[in-house]
Protein 1
Amino acid sequence: MRRVPVLGLAGLAAVAMTVTGCEKPAPGITVFSGTSSIRSEALCWAFDSDQLTPGECADEILRGQTTQGIQTLPAVPGNTVGISVDPVVAESGWNIVIGGQSLSESPLTTNYFRFTLPLQLGSQALPLQIVSGQDTKIRGVWIVGLEPEAA
């Protein structure tokens, strides 16, 4: 019978904890258009409650005061943009805000939504905000810049 040294197991456990980390990953979304897609974790997420507390990063992000962690996706005006969210986001309800306007009258509770990108994008990336939560209770925020691309 072969024995594994105790130090070897302890070292392996320490490496496994270091690699996996102690933090839970924030829920994610996937945004796609044409043949391009990106997967993004929440820029802010309330792990232990149904809403972010005042002063957390959501205020700065939603007002456009920070661009840290924001990814861009090439998108052709007039084409379809699809958004897929993790189940916990769908359960919390979520809204899509583009150009300052919400794309739905009430929070979505499905895992998938698609829309046609406006034809008049301009030359700058258009911020696409995904906001998880109901009413004024914001639980999480994602922002993706839709980068105009010629057809």
Protein 2
Amino acid sequence: MSRPAYLDTAAEFIVRTKLADLSAEALERGRWIVADCIPVIAAGMQTAEMKAFVASHLAVAAPGDVWVIGSGRRAAALDAGLLNGTAGTWLELDEGNLFAKGHPGIQVVPAALAVAQERGSSGAELLLASTLGYEICARISRASSIRLTIHPHGTYGVIGAAVAVGKLKGFDAARMRELINVAATMGMATSRNTLLEGSTVRNIYTGHSAYMGQIAARLVECGFTGEPDGVGFVYGKVLSDTFDADRVVAGLGSEWLVAKNYFKLHCTGRYVHSAIDALEDALARAPGGCVDAGAIERIDVAAYSLAAMLAGKQITTSFGARFSIPFALATILHHGRSGTAEFEQAAVDDPAVQALVAKVFVRHEAAYDAAFPERQLCDVHIRMKDGTTYTGRCEVTKGEPANPHSPADLEGKFMRLGAPVWGEARARELHAACMRLESIADFGAFAQELSL
């Protein structure tokens, strides 16, 4: 097979691009993506399963100086990437990208953070590497049509993590091209059904990306080779039946997919957010901005296909609760707020919440699919027992570039997640450092002085 030109173009772009070449929007989003991932990982690390995984894994792992974020412990880069990547999706608060059809950041940043610490890279190098890794893997995903049965975590994210690591290690264009092809075939056979079943094995998928991205770079350093077009074969014949290679590099350097990402304030799957926004719009029309949950007769939701899939009502676990529109609306209405506690096991076990879940009915509105992903149309119709109705609508989900959260919202999220783990003073110090990432001369030295 001949060498396809698009991979040469991509590899050369990665190698030659400097921080000054990023658009202002890409630079800002790249900085915020790093900042968003760190407290999300720390909060996820507090779950019982992650605490057990850290203890078990580090008992046999090689020593190192890289943060295992939120545990107060350190490890070698490979192990830290694995653990941090896995913790990052437990609470469903990690950023994502509808155009990339998944969550590039939490698959790329843990690997970049780990290698930057281990190598003593600058903060600018970390920011550039993670942003380029994000951009390239997002474009590969956009160029394919990954089967809906496949969960996107643990697939193209391996490529993004590998690109970030290769950039930090100073790979030339030839090795970067080889790295992309090697990493392309190192993804997992992931199952989207894990979301619908509430199966937490799904959280290892992002840890896999951080781990295998590093391994891919090590393989290339040792002389391993990939297929001439591993990307095209895997993303055009294995995970997907269609792949538009030209789309990977179209507008490269002028159009930035990283600047089209979203950030999340609700700890649910992204498509649930559209229904939550529509609910909030409906409640804004009620007296005092709320309704008596006990007086609700029925709630109807009409949504685009990916949201309509999340219609499950047999919710028995906290993790499963994060992927159910009926549960999300029920717990928010019952508790009057949307925080992490409202999706924990106590809320799942609450009979009042479960009774309200039974009153929520989700249907697919096929006409809404044509607008996606630019718009995420969703309607919520609340009918009260006295016949009063309240209707709300989501056009563009909050957190998307066209309807962004403010910097204050994102800083508030950082503090809500980080302060309980590190204390408010350290959380503020870390947030400030993330906002001036380019000024950190040696990220390894910076991390050595700050225990997370």
